[in-house]
Design brief:
20 helices, alpha/beta, 7-stranded antiparallel beta sheet, N-(1-d-carboxylethyl)-l-norvaline Dehydrogenase, domain 2, Rossmann fold, 7-stranded mixed beta sheet
Length: 547
Amino acid sequence: MEAYPDPSGGTMHRRGDAQERNTATEVWYLQAELEREVTIIRKDAPLPGESSYASAAPAAARGLVESGSPEDIRRLRFAILGAGRLGISLGLALAAAGATLCGHTGRSAEGRTRAEQLLGSPSLATVADLVAAAFGHRESEPRSLPVFVITVPDGELAAAARVLAEAVAEHFDAAGGQSAAVSAIPAWAAVHTSGATPVSALDSCAVRGALTLSLHPLQTFSDPGRGPELLRGAAVAVTPGPDETRREEARGLGERVAHLVGGRPFLLEERYRTLYHAAAVMASNYLVTVEHAAERLFLEAGLPAADVLAAFLPLARGALDNIQAQGTVGALTGPLSRGDGETVAAHLRALDPTDPDLADLYRTPGHATLELVRSRGELPVDAIDALESTMNVTAERAPDTATGAFTVMTRYVTFSTQGEGDVVDLTDQISHLLRESGLTAGTATVFAPGATGAVTTLEFEPGVVHDFQQLFARIIPADDPYRHNLLLQDGNGHSHVRAGLLGPSLVIPFVNGRLTLGTWQEAVCVCFDHIPRDRKVIVQFMGVSEE
């Protein structure tokens, strides 16, 4: 068994050669060290607002992180709690820049193995071990600042912070032989890397004296081996913790860490976090979704699977290059920008029978694209309105099935809702589709896909609709502590329960080609989600015709 130095000063043992850095990693370390030295001499152009952010914190307020010299930067000691793709990327970049990696923990056996191979040290067994390693060199380096970087999934952040805070308290309790007061714990920092979760998730660490902040690189990390490369030049959102007395110190630390990995920090105020993260999802995640949909359609159009990515990725890169050169409004091309409604209609006629879901996906960004077209001022208003009408098709058709005289027809009704119990009358659309089908006797099944929508019948008048909404508000309050919200943090636990109670389907007999609804009875869809939604309800007719 081979021995190697422990970061805290002792000796640990390596279980074989799997944890050794490979040659490529060592080369990257050398390259990153050279680039860091150059960065100290030449600062890149700042992001909007970056220069004022960088100079706003007075030096006296930044405490242990007030100096940007290489010597002070190297005093940074960091530990990674939950070393996944982003955690490994930060670990490689920080260590290459001269900071000391004290240790890391992982959530799964596979993740721990990957972290050990890339970071070159074994994963520690417990958070307590991580704390002991991080505080291990305080006597020899009294100005060093242990920074715990928490990179677990959002839903686990608060729990991980509590475990870390308890481990820090217990570490100094054991060292001092008595309960650890905050004043007895040396300076330390807790940083999370989530773009969506508030810094208040680290409050349990703040109670134990930690400087708290979030550090979110505006970049995607699917391959941790390329992570350090992607961090260089990336924008990094820094949000200080809620303690106003330590705000500037937290900003200073976040800025230093961001510069250390080659990033470009900017201040993100907590109140704008959700909007910021939604923008990041649209800019990155949904871009992948759209390109995946394009890939499916190219394959459907007959392009060879082995060549399809190489065929359309230059098109996608060209669009991004145009955005960089001309901005989002100026870079727009395509049929909508030209007012070519016939081409758009042809696209929808081809997509609807091929894949209704992709047809919906085509329509949604299409409507948003029309806002860009309007802002350019190149098309007359009536031409843009005609394009919008072309995409506002509400009924789609699937192939009919006929057995003898019995026929099954599937149709779709699409519409938008406001959420929170919004009631939409579907009676006219269903009646229109029934007349169009030619069937005279049978049943119409109305079904709402999804877990937050439901269908039923009501007298569709404002008083009944209001009373109906108030009923659900009373019996299933939105602010109850739903386990679903605790687990997923999406705020719509009440929506699922309300929809489950009402149910997703309705069967209406029809005779002589007419729905057998009562005089004041309408078929409605209810959207219980807590946000506005675009809905697609399935209407399936099963019956016969008088021929």
